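Two folds, back to back.
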Amino acid sequence: MSEEVEEDEDEVADEEESGGGGFGGKKLILFIVLPILLIGGAGAGVYFSGLLDSFLGAAPEEEVKEEEVKEAETPGHYIDLDEMLVTLASKGRKQSFLKLRVSLEIGDPLEEPRVTTVMPRIIDNFQVFLRELRVEELQGSQGIYRIKEELLSRVNAATHPVKVKDVLFREILVQ
């Protein structure tokens, strides 16, 4: 029996040396760190799944998407501009020309008279911008896209109450 008491005393001594007989490293991870990670993971899953949106007061994405779809589904009305022939900026004696045919897309056909009344201003804004372009700026799809965006901002500035949805290139010829 004295051997059993000595063995129990050795085990108690070992426990005191390893961490005071309380929580060991494995027990600490098992009972404290693991539940915190599980609760945090569950909370993140609930948040990202959208179940908390009604509690947080966020607008449902479905309503926003329906408005965007309605706006995109309405067929636009197109106004064709006359053909423009512009001399491009160049450093040497060789001149380059840009021949351009453009259509403007507006949302409501009833706004066409407003746009046609400011058509001289639109063409002037286009001419001023296009004459400053160089041939290098027209190369590649990125160059054409930048020019399209600049023309759209200029036409929207000229037709301010009326919003032009898009500028569509019907013909682009650089010579």
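---
second:
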Amino acid sequence: MSRRNFLGTASCAAIGSTTFLNAILNLGVANALAGLSRPPAADDEDYKALVCLLLAGGNDSFNMLVPRSDDHYSEYANSRSNLALPHGDLLPIHFTDCNGKQFGLHPSMPEVQTLFNNGKLSFISNVGTLVEPTTKAQYLNGHVRLPVGLLSHADQIQQWQTSIPQTRSSKGWGGRMADILHAGNENQHISMNISLSGTNIFQVGNRSAEYAIRASVGGSVGIDVYEGTKKLDRILKTGTESLLAQQYQDIFKSTFTDKIKDSQANHKEFSMAIGQAPRLNTPFSQNPLSANMELIAKTIAVRKTLNMKRQIFFVNFGGWDHHDGVLDNQVAMLSVVSKALAEFQTAMEELGVANRVTTFTASDFGRTLTSNGNGSDHAWGGNVMVMGDGVHGGRIFGNYPSLALGGNDDIGGAILLPSIAIDEYFGELSKWFGVADGDLAYVLPNIGNFYTPGSTAWPIGFMKMA
């Protein structure tokens, strides 16, 4: 067999796709000259992690967090019509806002109800993509810069990951954080950004990319033939090792070969570490989201073995584009989310890092208040959750909007104008994670439109100062 033919069969059929994916993403050929690197000033015990849970598709979050007091519920019910949840089914939470509104949760979220009432979780209301502060009058008059492709799935899911709504960027704010903070990790082989959902924009920076792992295999994936026991596996392993041992004059071939070897070495290192993870007493449900959260917990459990002080995790739990059947779909899907969040929080408490790990949700956008018949359509502002002992729990931050059709927050078509920018949301998470005020504009280029870095106040106030 010629070398070219061997490459065509061995590399495409026998070598694990995740190893190749990690290698390609970490080549960094185009970004080799980029460079901000500010390690956090931290002692050996310092550790923080962010866990991003992306509810891809656009979660109808005004059926997740619902006004429960009589007048405000009536406003909700009138606007939502056949999508309104029965008042008696709402799960009450212990919070009343400054306007006297009381709230309840979707009946499929009893675990989130407990987390909220126990001060472990909070909501941030009416968050969305904004380029600059925007009023309803400015929107209607066209006197303000708006996000590119507003209400478009492709654009909005991208902008929640990049936090640059005025343009289509391929770099994420999580990746830019890693550009700055990665040097604080002793381990420079495995990325501080770990994805449970393959490639994503959120974790790609100018010098950083995600390291992909899979819950289905319990960790990272290496070159298949290296781990096989069949005769063909041994033959292919010998051939692969021969190819990787060659000295290539072509710089791309040489760099690619080095990265493949590095990725296999990283796979061995990660696998050895995860194999030493303590057995968790926390039971996790048998579904893909809980399995992903369990693997994140195991990875955090071996943070010292991996020599990590900062980690960012990404999980995509999709399927929220409910133009039809929103009520039935949310019964099942919000139950999965609620259980997974509670299980993960319990595991963090078991590991003693609940104050060092913050989990937050994101979604493409909120959805229209009005029904399209049996579902809801693309909109703008929506509600998100943030969880952990580092959070000021048991509160709803921001102004929960009026749900009246044609009201102060409705810009037309039952679409709510966000009152909090994603930059403020992500800015607070970034500051808690260790990004210095002077570097916030690198991570979030629009942050200065909504918040003054260096201010004694935090952008929103939902995180405890560390």
